[in-house]
Amino acid sequence: MFAVLRKEFNAFLNSPVAYVVLGVFLVATGLFVWVFPDSSVLDYGFADLQTLFNLAPWIFLFLIPAITMRTFAEEKKAGTIELLLTRPLTDGQLVGGKYLACLLLALLALVPTLLYYYSVVKLGAPEGNIDSAAFAGSLIGLALLAAVFAAIGVLASALTRDQIIAFLVAVVGCFLVYSGFDSLASLFEGSSAYYIGQLGIAAHYRDLSKGLVDSRDLLYFFSVVAAMLLATRLVLRSRNW
């Protein structure tokens, strides 16, 4: 699995994909967090990075499918998937290696956001006047969100041999899981609305953004990732049916 991970991650670094993803993410978040007056931390007047964590999921909604769309679709189109499947690898190792390579690239985009945190800490009055627990929880939530989006993207890529179709399916899938249940919950009232909302990512992401790292939220994210990867493995195994 680690050999596949290494190969896939090196392939990302040797192509424009990694640099486009990192560049787009950093430019978009940088503009909204520091430049645009309606969302700038400097104009907001509070030592808070909520703008970053409100915006990042919508950027990841498009960037992560762009990363994952080639994982299996490109192999199928090039005809190398059969060769790959004859290697001494289990389907789980193959899926795990490709998934972790995509996730690692997505998480790499989050590393520079630590500079945002450091900047706000230094700019705060008094210095350090920032809710560090909320920042840490939001960062964990964003990492888990990236994990779910990457799992959905890998599944979408396994379903087709066309990268564009894989990208579109992944975007729609990520949108439905992130925001679809909230929209559906708004049609109901009371406990029904609450439980429907809990099926989506947004509710759990909001809880983590408050700095409350609850085991139920972690279990939700890990369960969705596991379900998507098991579904991808099942799609690959369907070649034997």
Main features:
single chain, about 240 residues, mainly alpha, 13 helices, about 75% helix
Shape: globular
Question: What is the average of the pLDDT values?
Answer: 86
Count every beta strand, where a strand is a DSSP E run of 2 or more residues: 0
> What structural category do the secondary elements indicate?
mainly alpha
Low-confidence stretches: none
DSSP summary: helix tally: 13
**What oligomeric state do these chains adopt?**
single chain
Helical amount among residues, as a percent range?
A: over 70%
Termini distance? Answer: 24 Å
**Whole-angstrom Rg:** 19 Å
- Sheet of most strands: none
- Percent strand equals under 5%
Helices and strands, in order, run as HHHHHHHHHHHHH
Description:
The protein has 241 residues and is mainly α. It has 13 helices and no strands. It has helices spanning 2-13, 16-35, 41-44, 50-68, 73-78, 81-85, 91-108, 113-123, 132-158, 163-185, 190-197, 201-209, 215-237. The longest helix has 27 residues, at 132-158. The chain is globular. It starts with a helix and ends with a helix. The model has no long low-confidence stretch (mean pLDDT 86).
